[in-house]
Each structure stands twice: as structure tokens, then as C-alpha cells.
Amino acid sequence: MYRNFDLSVDVGRIRSMQIYVTGQARRPGVYTVSSLTSLVDALFASGGPSPQGSLRHILLNRDGKTVADFDLYALLIRGDKSKDIHLLPEDVLFIPPAGPQAAITGSIRVPAIYELRVGETIGDLLDAAGKTTAMSSTTRISVDRAGQGQLREAMELSFDAGSLATPLADGDILRVFPVVPAYQKTVTLRGDVANPDASAGMPACA
Fold first, then answer.
1. Per-residue three-class SS string for the chain
2. What is the pLDDT of residues 104-132, one digit of tens each?
């Protein structure tokens, strides 16, 4: 333990280093970055993947070996940066072409085309799309899939745990149906009235 002393600290410049961004990046090239730079930092500095690049497999190569396979969806969709890794001099960030894709449409919060990782299921795609809306049907899902002979086939699955565990294939198109526009225990008033509306029905009198 030290008492009654003064401490003086001089902060020098942070050491810089060179890294490489290759493959399907928006701005591939050689980058001079600080020694504190991480994979995500370098990815954003290079503009990220191009429209043809993969968002699910950002590869970090070091000394001829792949030391990280970063899934950008984890950061963009779930805000998870835990798999980020700090870079070292001469590291190579390689963005391969986009892999298999599936589309989801209908009564879903974020309908879009999503890139798939191996083994992903219908449930995983629903999670990536922000889950269903309050007006979606919870009874069935339609799957349009490429079948044999270059012909497409349509499947209809029940909205249960078994169906949500169904693996996805490249080119799948999922549709989440909205609820049927029908009423229960309701009286609908139409015609020459001041306020046409649907109202809850009164219980029948005994």
C-alpha cells in the first residue's frame, strides 16, 4: 500500500494494424484499424455484406484457419453481440455469397425473404420475422415448396409444435393466414339505420 504520492499517466496512441475484407462485401479492401477493432466494427466499416453476400456466415480467417463464423442475424434481429471477436493484425474477414433462402408472408410482423442456416425450422423463421400478429390464425400455415421435376407443391400444416419443428428448404414460401372474418355470439345490424354495427348478442331468455 502506498501513501502520500502523486501518479502521472501519459496515454499514447493506440496501435494500428492492417486487416483485409474480402468476398461479397460492399467495400472490400485493406483497412487500417485500431488494435481494439472487433469483427463487427470492421464489418460496419466496410459497409457490410453486399446484396449478394451472406448475412448468416461472416467468416474470420487467421493464419489460414477459420476462427469464427459470425451470424449477423443475431445482432440485427436479436441484438446479440456476444459472438463478436477482437481482430489481430493480418486477419481476413471473408463474406461468402448468400446461402439458402425462404420467404414468409401474410399475417406476420416482418414479412421478408430470410437467409437460412443449416437445420433451421418454420419456428425459427417465425421468430426471425417477429412472430405472428394479433390478427393471425393459429390453426394452419401454408408452405409452398419446390418439389420433384421442377414443379412446386403446396402443403398445409397445423399450427402446432410438431409443424413448427419442420425443417425449411431453399426456396420455401410460408404464408401465415389471418383470422377468418366471422363473428361468434354477435348480432349484425345493417340497412337504413343511423349506426350499422356488430354488437355482442344477448343470452337467450329461458
1. CCCCCCCCCCCCCCCEEEEEEEECECCCEEEEEECCCEHHHHHHHCCCECCCECCCCEEEEECCEEEEEECHHHHHHHCCCCCCCECCCCCEEEECECCCEEEEEECECCCEEEECCCCCEHHHHHHHCCCECCCEEEEEEEEEEECHHHCEEEEEEECCHHHHCCECCCCCEEEEEECCCCCCCEEEECCCCCCCEEEECCCCCC
2. 999 999 999 999 999 999 999 999 999 99
